[in-house]
TrEMBL record:
It comes from the Eukaryota. GO terms for biological process: establishment of epithelial cell polarity. The keyword Kinase does not apply. The lineage of its organism: Eukaryota, Metazoa, Chordata, Craniata, Vertebrata. Residues 1-67 form the FERM domain. Residues 126-153, 237-264 form a coiled coil. Pfam families: CUPID, FERM_C. GO terms for cellular component: adherens junction; bicellular tight junction; cytoplasm. Keywords: Coiled coil, Cytoplasm. It is found in: Cytoplasm. This is FRM4B protein.
Length: 283
């Protein structure tokens, strides 16, 4: 009987019917099958199996529509009227299913769903539908707001990258007809010197020399730290020591230039390199 039917499905050359039989124990091949579930199978070529499945689904839909009509129409009607109504309800669905099978020849298995959208078991009240729609709209709004937030964050990251590299990355999100913004590359050092460290000289030439000295002083300190790192191989340690010696030499040359210029201007020379690196022997 149709009320005992659990499922109708096909897969390639196999057509199967699952029914409930409370008089028998479960012989289903499913690992988690229900109690009293019996599976009967038939085999044929793929086209015939799909045709049988389509007709079986249509017959089951006919049963569901008839059951629904009986539940909704309490007054007795003639068999001719019932047959006419069921024909009008069932024919479009059967033709639609056959059309779908004809268009999609790559279908190799059914989805196993028997509940019709018009059956009594799948009816949902209008109030529940409205609540579901409102819930989905709220989720959609939250997702859109989150998406806009992430897009703005991505724009800021892309602009920052463009300022550093001088080229706008391809990941920058653009709207319809929007042109990417023009960004100038930011030029600067990796670290910032304290303004208090820079001496204030009235002479611009002497000011440049003093600033250059402070910058190279930082370079010497960095080279010293690299050369004094432990667990270095012989070649790397030798190379870093040489770089440190070259930096110290460059610093001494800058100091000599400063002193020569100060003497030329009638000022006293200074000894900054020895004060900047106490305990170090400047060659």
């Amino acid at each position: 009987q149709w009320k005992q039917l659990e499922n109708l499905y096909f897969r390639e050359k196999k057509f199967a019917v699952e029914v409930h039989d409370p008089r028998r124990i479960s012989v289903s091949r499913r690992t988690f099958g229900q109690s009293g579930l019996v599976v009967q199978t038939w085999y044929a070529n793929t086209s015939l199996i799909k045709s049988i499945w389509v007709m079986a689904i249509s017959q089951h839909q006919f049963y569901l529509d008839r059951k629904q009509s009986k539940a909704k129409i309490p007054s007795a009607r003639s068999l001719d009227d019932i047959a006419m109504d069921l024909t009008e309800m069932g024919t479009p669905k059967v033709s639609k299913m056959v059309t779908l099978e004809a268009k999609n020849q790559l279908i190799m298995a059914s989805n196993g769903s028997l509940i019709s959208s018009g059956s009594q078991d799948s009816e949902v009240s209008e109030e529940q539908k409205k609540e579901k729609i409102m819930e989905l709209k709220k989720k959609e709004k939250l997702l859109q707001e989150k998406l806009l937030q992430k897009v703005e964050e991505l724009k800021k990251i892309c602009l920052r990258e463009a300022e550093l590299t001088g080229k706008m990355p391809k990941e920058y999100p653009l709207g319809a007809g929007e042109e990417p913004p023009q960004v100038r590359r930011r030029v600067g050092t990796a670290f910032k010197l304290d303004d208090n460290l820079l001496p204030s000289e009235e002479d611009p030439t002497l000011q440049d020399l003093e600033s250059n000295f402070i910058i190279h002083q930082k370079l010497v300190e960095a080279a010293k730290k690299l050369a004094s790192e432990p667990d270095l191989c012989k070649n790397v340690k030798k190379k870093r020591k040489q770089e440190y010696a070259d930096a110290v030499k460059k610093l001494q040359e800058i100091e000599n230039s400063i002193n020569e210029y100060r003497i030329k201007c009638g000022k006293k020379p200074t000894q900054k390199s020895t004060l900047a690196l106490p305990g170090e022997r400047i060659p």
